[in-house]
Amino acid sequence: MSLSLILVCLWAVLANLLAMRPSRDNHWRLAYGLIATGIPLLGYVTWQMGPWVGLVLLLAGISVLRWPVYFLIRRLRRGRRRRL
User: What pTM did the predictor assign?
Assistant: First the structure.
């Protein structure tokens, strides 16, 4: 197994452990940290393993961080409606 896949597996374990912790802000600070570390890891995996593995891991990351993605899509849709 390559270093990039080991790092992504550690990221996933860390994300699950952080999700079990109680949080006053509904884990938003932790989600920002996971996003900030996950994007470079995703690029590293895609560069080392290829675009298909990168796409699979992108979908796995979206399933872990689904609420930030949901709110981003909602914000983008709301901004597009204001322009029209």
Answer: 0.80
